[in-house]
Write a structure and sequence with these properties.
The chain contains 9 helices and 4 strands. By secondary structure, the chain is mainly alpha-helical. Strands 1-2 form a two-stranded antiparallel sheet. It has a two-stranded parallel sheet with strand order 3-4. The two termini are 20 Å apart.
Length: 218
C-alpha cells in the first residue's frame, strides 16, 4: 500500500544528503527565492515522500518495467495524494473525513499534478485492471482456439467439421468437470486467487475493504 513520510531538514543534514540542497535551491531559484543554507537551523524544509510497495506497483498499477513507471508514476502519486491525506484536526468533529487538508498537503498535491504531468496516462487502477482483464481473456480464447484446432488435426478432422468438433470438445470438458468436481473447484479457486487484482470480483473486494481510503491527521 501507499505510505507517506514527512521529513525535516535536520535529518538530511545528519545523513549528509547534500544533493537535496542543490535540488531545493534550484527550485527556489526558478521562483526567484534565495538559496537555503544547510548550516542555518532557522531555515527549514518539509519534504513529502510517497512510498509504494511492490504489490501496489505490480498488482494495482501494473508497473513492472521502467517504461511502465514513466507512463503511470504521475497517476499513482496523484491518486495517493487524493486518498491519503495530511489533515488539520478539528477537535469539534470526530469524523476525520471532514477535516480539511493541511496547507502543506495542498502544496504537495499541486506540485505533483504540475511536475509529473508528463508521467501520467490519466488512468485509475480500475481502468488499468479492466484493460488487463480483457487482454487476458482475449489471449486465453486465442490459446483455446489454437489448442482445439491442433486437437482436431490430430484426430483427422477437416475444416468443415470444426464447428461440430468444437461442440464435442465442449461436451468432453463438461463431462470431465462433472467427474472431478472437487479438483476442478480447487483449480478455479487457485485461478481466482491468482487473478484477483484484475477480476471484477477482486476490484469490488478491494473497494469494500477500503484499500483506497485512508486519512491521516497532522
Amino acid at each position: 500500500m501507499n505510505t507517506t513520510n514527512m521529513a525535516k531538514t535536520p535529518a538530511y543534514i545528519q545523513k549528509q544528503k547534500a544533493h537535496w540542497w542543490a535540488i531545493w535551491n534550484k527550485t527556489r531559484a526558478a521562483i526567484g527565492q534565495p538559496d537555503l543554507s544547510p548550516v542555518d537551523p532557522s531555515q527549514k524544509i518539509w519534504r513529502v515522500e510517497f512510498r509504494a510497495g511492490k504489490d501496489l506497483l505490480k498488482d494495482t498499477w501494473n508497473i513492472r518495467t521502467w517504461s511502465d513507471m514513466f507512463a503511470r508514476f504521475g497517476d499513482l502519486c496523484a491518486q495517493t495524494g487524493d486518498v491519503i491525506r495530511y489533515t488539520v484536526p478539528n477537535t469539534y468533529d470526530r469524523n476525520r473525513a471532514r477535516w480539511p487538508n493541511h496547507p502543506l498537503w495542498e502544496v504537495a498535491v499541486a506540485e505533483i499534478v504540475s511536475d509529473l504531468s508528463e508521467m501520467r496516462e490519466d488512468e485509475d487502477p480500475a481502468g488499468v485492471k479492466s484493460v488487463l482483464r480483457e487482454q487476458h481473456i482475449a489471449t486465453l480464447i486465442k490459446n483455446i482456439r489454437g489448442t482445439s484446432v491442433t486437437l482436431a488435426a490430430l484426430e483427422g478432422r477437416n475444416s468443415e467439421a470444426l464447428p461440430d468438433f468444437f461442440g464435442q470438445v465442449a461436451t468432453k470438458l463438461t463431462n470431465s468437470v462433472n467427474s472431478e468436481p472437487e479438483h476442478v473447484a480447487k483449480m478455479l479457486k487457485n485461478a481466482q486467487d491468482r487473478y484477483t487484482f484484475v477480476t471484477e470480483q477482486g476490484l469490488e473486494a478491494m473497494e469494500n475493504a477500503g484499500i483506497f481510503s485512508e486519512t491521516r491527521g497532522a
